Amino acid sequence: MSGYPDTQLHINGRWKDGSNEHLSILNPASGEVIGHVSNASNSDLDEALAAAAAGFEQWRRVSAFERAKLMRQAAEILRDRSAAISRIMTLEQGKPLAESKAETAGAADTIDWFAEEARRAYGRLIPPRSINVRQMVVREPVGPVAAFSPWNFPLNQAVRKVSAALAAGCSIILKGPEETPASCAELVRAFADAGLPAGVLNLVFGIPADISNYLIPHPIIRKISFTGSTAVGKQLASLAGAHMKRVTMELGGHAPAIVFDDADIDLAVRLLAGAKFRNAGQVCVAPTRFLIQERVFDKFLDGFVRAAEAINVGDGLRDGVTMGPLANPRRVEAMESLTADAVTRGAKIATGGKRIGNLGNFFQPTVLTDVPQDARVLNEEPFGPMAIVGAFSDYGSAIAEANRLPYGLAAYAYTTSAKTSAALARDIESGMLSINHHGLALPELPFGGIKDSGYGSEGGIEAMENFVNTKLVTEAI
């Protein structure tokens, strides 16, 4: 694993080439082809579906205790291979090596947490109205799952879906990200090497629309889990609804970050800058709309611009690099388009705003001010290293702007007032709210949005609920 490996499909316990022509993998730091990934055909998907059906019948009968043991073993394998997997992730996705290592370690922790939850999928007894009746609620795995994971976190997003499904006793077909396939494949390899029975976890790659349109309506599939854009999520949710499939949707966001004038401004600058430019801003929960109370606006802006300009942008494998390239040329084009639109409408560039060089997908950490409300960047998820900083006068106007968009994934706030914190918890329309720190995405916490940001959770005990059916058994005794 010293170089970048070509990536195969994993179906029914075997690694195999797809029937379609392979897809090329580009290094986002150089634009060079570094490998290839197998492209699944319908015949490959049929094989995966049959394997998942057989795998489910076997895996559902494995005790929760034994499922947990195997999952913990997979987590340890992932930790042992962390250095190699992290390098692969940086080569294909671009993020700095330190971020890749953190993602790999976090994936192992997620497996461990769900392994323990496998043993806690409790039912309950309901007191009967008659002494001669026993009423039980039991939890059963929902069935084979089709999961679709994105390129921005090749391990983090896939491992949540895989771990919850396996913990519940489901089999799963994982459609991995075709732009960043190899690190995702190493997650599957860890489970296979831990002894997971053939067919329980299958991995396919290919043209996203072709695979989703084939898998979602298929009668073998009983549950859909998707992470991606709101537009695509709505299409897939509609398709799943037409076939009465249970769905978890973790979609786009446009997170507000509200800084009140009583906040610790230095802390807010440091934490918000780190969160904004992590993974080059390609994070669904990244803060994007910075709402700063007027009295501290200049202080915050000055500090935030300095923080942005101090970021060392470069190849994620180089020492000292703190922000890598964008994952693909489409994101660079999007940053240029959003910047040009905002400036045309009167916005000012406090720093950044341009691509860096002609090699790779590098873009400057960017801060925009005086952005009018009709600018695209204030209404479309930027998904890149771009912060929109504006001022607000009072609590009501901050809440109005925070809740203005149809997104509702994450929100952030900084204040030392307990009264303000309590009001924010009540008034912010978001699936997640983090105050005075950034505490989202831990495996034990719920992770999901509301409104156009989706529904269902991929974290906490709530995540397990999406993979089990509730069955009532009432018996005369």
Which properties best describe this structure?
single chain, 477 residues, alpha/beta, Aldehyde Dehydrogenase, Chain A, domain 1, 2 domains, 20 strands, 38% helix, 21% strand, globular
SSE map:
Layout lengths: L8 E3 L2 E3 L3 E7 L6 E7 L2 H18 L4 H17 L1 H12 L3 H22 L5 E3 L6 E9 L3 E4 L7 H13 L3 E4 L5 H13 L7 E4 L3 H8 L7 E5 L2 H13 L3 E5 L4 E5 L5 H13 L9 E7 L3 H13 L19 H16 L3 E4 L14 E4 L16 E7 L2 H8 L7 E5 L3 H10 L4 E4 L18 E2 L4 H6 L2 E9 L1
Helix pairs in contact: 2-4, 2-5, 2-6, 3-4, 3-6, 4-5, 9-10
Strand fraction equals: 15-25%
The backbone outline, from C-alpha atoms, is: globular
Q: Give the N-to-C terminal Cα separation.
A: 61 Å
The low-confidence runs, each spanning 5 or more residues with pLDDT under 50, are none
CATH class value of the largest domain: Alpha Beta
Give structural notes.
The chain is an alpha/beta fold. The protein has two domains: 9-251 and 454-476, Aldehyde Dehydrogenase, Chain A, domain 1; 255-442, Aldehyde Dehydrogenase, Chain A, domain 2, CATH 3.40.309.10. It has helices at residues 42-59, 64-80, 82-93, 97-118, 156-168, 181-193, 208-215, 230-242, 265-277, 297-309, 329-344, 395-402, 418-427, 460-465; strands at residues 9-11, 14-16, 20-26, 33-39, 124-126, 133-141, 145-148, 172-175, 201-204, 223-227, 246-250, 255-259, 287-293, 348-351, 366-369, 386-392, 410-414, 432-435, 454-455, 468-476. Strand 8 (172-175), helix 6 (181-193) and strand 9 form a beta-alpha-beta unit. Helix 3 (82-93) crosses helix 4. The radius of gyration is 23 Å and the shape is globular. The model has no long low-confidence stretch (mean pLDDT 97).
